[in-house]
Design a protein that fits this description.
The protein is an all-beta fold. It has strands at about 5, 10, 20-25, 35-40, 45-50, 60, 70-75, 80-85, 90-100, 115, 120-125. The chain has no helices and 11 strands.
Length: about 130
C-alpha cells in the first residue's frame, strides 16, 4: 500500500526554523515527483514546493521562495522541507503528495497528485 507520512511539525516563534520530513512506503521514491502543500484554517490548500523524481527540478511558490528549501533522499525514501525565517502566516497544516510526473504547466494542481499524507501542523506564534 502506498503511503506518505509527514513529521517534524510543531510550534515555533517567528523567525525560527523547522524541518519537515515526508517518508514514503509502498513505492520507490525515485519513481514519483513530490509536492509540498499547506492549508491554513478557512483557506484553500496552497502548493508551496515540488520537485521531480530525481530532485533535479525544484519549484517554489513566491510565498516561500528564499526561505524554504526542499530536498529528497531517494535511497531513504524521504523528502525534506527546511523552513527558515518562519512567519505567523506560515501557520498551517502541511502535506506532502506524490504524482508520477511533474508537469511544468501544473506544478500545484491538486487533482494531479495521486497520493497524500495525513498532514502535520506547523504553528508560528510568539
Amino acid at each position: 500500500q502506498l503511503q506518505l507520512v509527514e513529521s517534524g511539525g510543531g510550534s515555533v516563534q517567528p523567525g525560527g526554523s523547522l524541518t519537515l520530513s515526508c517518508t514514503v512506503s509502498g513505492f520507490s521514491l525515485d519513481t514519483y515527483a513530490i509536492g509540498w502543500f499547506r492549508q491554513a484554517p478557512g483557506k484553500e490548500r496552497e502548493g508551496i514546493s515540488c520537485n521531480n523524481r530525481r530532485g533535479g527540478v525544484t519549484n517554489y511558490s513566491d510565498s516561500v521562495k528564499g526561505r524554504f528549501t526542499m530536498s529528497r533522499d531517494n535511497p531513504k525514501n524521504t523528502v525534506y522541507l527546511q523552513m527558515n525565517s518562519l512567519k505567523p502566516e506560515d501557520t498551517a497544516v502541511y502535506y506532502c503528495a506524490a504524482r508520477r510526473f511533474l508537469n511544468s504547466g501544473s506544478y500545484y494542481n491538486t487533482n494531479e497528485y495521486d497520493f497524500w499524507g495525513q498532514g502535520t501542523q506547523v504553528t508560528v506564534s510568539s
